[in-house]
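Exercise 7.
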Amino acid sequence: MTLQTLLDLVLGGVSLGGIYALVAFTLSLSLATTHVLNVAHGTFMVLGAALATLLFRMTPVGWPVAVLVLLAAFALLGLFFEVAFVRPFAAKSPDQILVGSILVTFGFALAVEALLGYYWARLVDPQPSFSLTFPRARVTLLGVVFSGTRVTILVVAAAAIAAFHLFLRRTPLGRAVRALSQNYAGAVILGVNPRLVSLTIYLTGITATAAAGALLALAIPLEPYSGLRLTLVAMTIVVIGGVGSLPGALLGGGLLGMAEVLTAYVLGSVWSPVVSLLVFFTVLVVRPEGLWGRRAA
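Solution. The predicted structure, written as tokens, is:
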């Protein structure tokens, strides 16, 4: 293995881990604050990749306009999803919310995937696949050559994660989100508005998830039926890092990203999806509280 190959593998693993960490953290926040387990979370990545493919490859608009359209569309979709699929569970018990949300969002994911695959094949391309190309294939930093695509993915994912961190730490609404995720009843008694927090989480979370799907389409072609696999990846990272933990999501995303890239290099890309399943069940058996969590006394 040459030094250039090693650098490419590390950059590939870290950039993929950054995307995974961003997606897993948004899933984790929605679970911690609303008790809704959104099985359709990965489907929003696929929708983001599909809309980005349409905007960047098949329309004449410039990339700043395309980015704004992408973010605005999924902000609206996030608000719709919260009102239609999250708010009806507001008065239920945590157990009822968890079971009901799994069933409802699983059905939503299946319906969206089927419609997307059918209409994309009929109206756009008979072989549905969502991918993007980056204009600068290679960039040179400090005399070392890197993949321009991977560097772009890493920078954008890191900026999005840093924005989430600043939002949670430095804004009153972010502190309300953290309070609700740590102690729901206590936060409500102290005056936190759970409906406002829920709207904020799904608006920002689904927008960030769709943007992460567009980033992933720069590296890996996605298909209409990739959503549930991506949800499983996000759930695996949540299991590794713990619910509501940004450092845990970064750790889990980095580990899983590196594991998938190394598996693809050694055994072939067809084996990469198996890694998340192996990690998921191994962590559940060996350390069910997660690598970042603490064992119960």
